[in-house]
Amino acid sequence: MKLLWEETAGPTQIQVQWESKYGRYDDWENGALAGLAYALHCLSGSQSYRIVVVDIIGTDVDTNPTIVALAALEGLWEALQYRASPAQWEELEALARQSWQHDWFQVPVFPLTGAQESNSKRY
Question: pTM of the predicted model, to two decimals?
């Protein structure tokens, strides 16, 4: 996953400028968007960002929207120096393991453990 990001004064924007040389992988793009939305949800503060997904690399054998989502959120968290709690990582790892038991094209629904809000909003 290759992301570009910058702080911005306007509202947060997430764009996908990636297109596989093998055609469109909408499920991977949607996974990246879901992962970035969850990553941003977990950040503290009111800072806005402009985030561009430039590249997604994977294979049909070991990559699904959940794996792409986790790569996207981990990349953004690392760039912004966010530290997830051990409980949060456990839930995310469980989500990755479970993703192979469902429809491989399904975009993940993220848990809210460790997130700023504790309502029923899910990504």
Answer: 0.83
